[in-house]
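Q: I have 195 residues here and want to know how they pack in 3D. Can you give me a structure?
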Amino acid sequence: MTSFTEFTANRVEGILNKLSPFKAPGRSGIPNAALKHCATTISPILATIYTSICRLNYYPHRFRCINQVVIRKPGRPSYEEANAYQPIALIETIAKVQSTMVTEDLSYICEKHKLLPKNQFGGRPGTTTSEALHMMEQFTRNAWRKGNMVSALFLDIQAAFPNMQKERLLENMRVRNIHEGYCNYVNMILTHREI
């Protein structure tokens, strides 16, 4: 892995080539198919832009702007209820490419230094719902073997707490000695966002 403030053209090109070509674009209207097609040509330019964003600690206003559209959920008996609709955030793809690289880095750091609890399965590479179910089954069987009863409470945490507190997230990152560059990046992308 290169230093936080340096993004390579090869890495950018790799992310561009993984883009789903038919996803809706952000405010620029540049389709993913065009970015994929031009990946080799634009990767060095984007790598320079991403590196500059981190070195200058400046996140472009255009990257902070999100188009949000509301679409109908299919198969609903009535569309007169608010929950029959789903908001979709259309984030600028060029901004998402950098965020993807930072996410990969942070994920690697968390796994390498064991910064996440063993029983956290969401948002981690290589973990599946099946593994979470197996862990729960094993816990239950072990309790039964000891003659204990087991009760479970399932919560949809994401729905119950749909947003996070930026300052708390940054504090948690710093306590875990995450490089300050990553903290600054997270702070930049979560400050003054517009929908």
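Q: Anything worth noting?
A: The chain has a mean pLDDT of 90. The two ends are 33 Å apart (CA to CA).
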